[in-house]
Design a protein that fits this description.
Blueprint (H helix, E strand, L loop, with lengths): L1 E6 L10 E6 L14 H11 L8 E5 L5 E6 L6 H17 L5 E5 L9 H13 L14 E7 L6 H22 L7 H9 L7 E5 L1 H7 L2 H7 L7 E8 L8 E11 L19 H15 L5 E11 L11 E3 L5 E3 L7 H16 L3 E6 L4 H6 L4 E5 L2 H14 L3 E3 L17 E2 L8 H10 L8 E5 L5 E2 L9 E2 L4 H11 L2
Parallel strand pairs: 1-6, 2-4, 2-5, 5-6, 9-10, 9-13, 12-16, 13-17, 14-15
Antiparallel strand pairs: 3-4, 7-8, 8-10, 11-12, 14-17, 18-19
Helix pairs in contact: 2-3, 3-4, 4-8, 7-9, 8-13, 9-12, 11-13
């Protein structure tokens, strides 16, 4: 499946071209009269008398060679509403069996910001994603959109949309890969290939991690024949040495649960337990592609949680990079162990303005919020507000959940400084976040996003067709765009 969007000036031909035209919320087609013949105008006007009032896009088969899609842009249309309309438009284009080349006339958008067209096309691109790498019969359909008129996005806007799409698609690709292909060794190599975009990459293998004392991260991966890694990805978009924005991701490439083995049913879904890290990698790629005017660093811990002969056992006690000790009561609560070392290292090494970590951390957050919101836990009200506002504007929503010292007693251990699960029961997502907070040592503004319900969708969403969603790349780009560039 391939979609091509060309921005260019073309001679207008009323009779032969498929069209995508824009009208107001009342479907007043007088504004598009000059783009269609009088016969077509009468035909469409007649059909509109019986239209479904809920529909915002209507597909007309004018004849065997010509199709017209009318898209309704209401007043005060938000950017994400324009993107959702674009996604709906893609579905119409994809289902059409005939010629798949359309002219999009931007000048039919009346009294609206020209940027809405950019968001509309952005929605088309985002919905077009398919992961077909391992199919012998691939979808070879090509949809071409020729966009003309005075209201087209500027080249700078196009570059930004393209960069965010590339970053989102890269995240989706990573999450969609099976565990036998994208194990930690391969994942580290793929991240290293991003150097060509101007990113500075450092890969810490097991030998280096042992020397650093990252034993909570290493403990998770010690049952696997694959290596364990910490990878840092730096983007320096400013010439000054201002503090970077830091993003940390959980990269458990496959999670069996370790010795605390998961049930067999749905274990195949654990290929996406590295989605937090994939968001960080996709974000860093998009920042580099759009030449973002910020300094940023991404840090990902890459491991595979397997029940091998050398696997970590329940009851083991390990010393983290921070110096704090952790009693392992359940080896399936492994993501927080990976993040513990990554968080402390990020704070100490880079001294960032803030740290945001992302992880498919708990099933409990799905019980709480389903697949509509990611769970947000934070020690900083300002950062939380910025994330909530960014999420609402791109429809990648977050909901703030509680952190409180009263939860500490649930993860205090009799044998170590803390234990990795709450055995009393309840507040599973909060106690996991409370655990992570203990590894922020210098009061750096920090937010934890539990994206377990958002990273993968079996039924699809507004801007994806099912599978890996890429949730988080657009959210964090918007956070940066709104507040830090």
């Amino acid at each position: 499946m391939n979609i091509r969007i060309n921005f260019k000036n073309r001679a207008f031909n009323k009779t032969s071209e498929n069209l995508i035209l824009f009208v107001n919320e009342n479907f007043d087609i007088s504004t598009i009269k000059k783009y269609i013949s009088s016969k077509e105008y009468s035909y469409i006007l007649d059909l509109l008398k019986t239209k479904d009032d809920k529909k915002k896009l209507i597909f007309f088969d004018i004849n065997s060679k010509k199709k017209i899609i009318l898209t309704s842009f209401k007043k005060n249309l938000s950017n994400f509403e324009a993107e959702n309309l674009g996604a709906e438009c893609f579905d119409l284009l994809y289902k059409s069996p005939k010629k798949n080349e359309y002219n999009v006339y931007s000048e039919t958008i009346t009294n609206q910001s020209k940027n809405l067209l950019g968001h509309f096309l952005h929605g088309i691109k985002l919905k077009s994603y398919r992961f077909e790498k391992y199919k012998t019969k691939k979808d070879k359909k090509i949809i071409t959109l020729n966009v003309t008129g005075k209201n087209i996005p500027s080249s700078k806007e196009q570059q930004k949309f393209n960069a965010i799409e590339e970053g989102t698609f890269y995240t989706r690709d990573l999450v969609s890969e099976p565990g036998n292909i994208l194990h930690p060794d391969e994942y580290a190599k793929r991240i290293n290939s991003l150097k060509k975009f101007g990113l500075k990459i450092n890969i810490y293998d097991e030998k280096k991690l042992k020397k650093l004392g990252m034993n909570t991260l290493l403990g998770v991966g010690q049952g696997s024949i694959r290596g364990s890694y910490l990878v840092t990805i730096e983007w320096n978009g400013l010439k000054n040495k201002s503090k970077p924005l830091a993003f940390v991701g959980k990269g458990v490439c496959f999670d069996t649960g370790g010795i605390s083995l998961k049930p067999a049913k749905f274990m195949e879904d654990m290929t996406y337990d590295m989605a937090g890290s994939a968001v960080v990698v996709g974000l860093m790629k998009s920042l580099a592609l759009r030449k973002a005017k910020i300094n940023a660093v991404g840090v990902v811990g890459l491991v595979e949680n397997m029940p091998g002969g050398n696997a970590q056992r329940p009851g083991d006690i390990v010393k983290s990079y921070s110096g704090k000790t952790v009693e392992i009561l359940n080896t399936d609560a492994e993501g927080r162990l990976v993040l513990a070392d990554a968080l402390t290292y990020t704070e100490e090494k880079f001294k960032p303005k803030f740290i945001i970590d992302l992880a498919t951390l708990t099933g409990a957050i799905i019980v709480s919020l389903g697949s509509e919101y990611a769970g947000l836990f934070s020690n900083d009200d300002k950062l939380s507000k910025q994330l909530i506002e960014a999420g609402e504007s791109v429809e990648e929503k977050v909901w703030r959940m509680p952190l409180n010292k009263n939860y500490d007693k649930l993860i205090d251990s009799k044998n170590a400084d803390m234990q990795n699960i709450n055995y009393v029961g309840g507040a599973g997502s909060t106690t996991a976040a409370q655990f992570l907070q203990r590894f922020i040592l210098n009061k750096t503004p920090w937010a934890h996003l539990d994206i377990a319900g958002m990273a993968f969708s079996k039924y699809g969403g507004a801007l994806n067709s099912g599978g890996a969603t890429g949730y988080g790349v657009r959210l964090l780009n918007k956070l940066i765009d709104n507040n830090y560039e």
